[in-house]
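Our preliminary data section would be incomplete without showing what the modeling component actually yields. Below, a chain of 143 amino acids is followed by its predicted structure, encoded as tokens that our downstream tools consume directly.
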Amino acid sequence: MTEIVTAVAGKVSECMVDPIGRHLGYLFCYRSHIDELRNNVKTLGEARGEVQITVDEATRRGDEIRPRVQGWLKQVDEITGEAEELMMKDENNKISCFNLKSRYQLGRQASKKAQVIVEIQEARDFPDGVLSSPSTDCNLQRI
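Predicted structure:
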């Protein structure tokens, strides 16, 4: 009987350690979550810049841009704005170590936003390129 109780208690404690540790991490490591968010925003901004250059070149040539690429750029702009707002909140409030609720909320929000940014970066792969249709300039014949 004691072995069964011990086994059940062991399983319950295993299931509870990860969530509790994650939530304590939001509280005590909120600064590292903010730094991770800042780095992810920087990397995403660089990726957006590379895609934007390609889009600008295609637009100048008169090519159509794939809706998926336009949606990705819009999504990048939205998440970057939200992340910058969160980082400004951190800089303006200068949270003290005794304000546990604010530290927890900020750490959690920063961690979640950083995960979303990583997912958006992974969605950057456009196997068909950014153009909806190939340029017609290649089909023109010289007279």
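The first helix runs from residue 2 to 28. The radius of gyration is 23 Å. Preliminary results of this kind motivate Aim 1 of the renewal.
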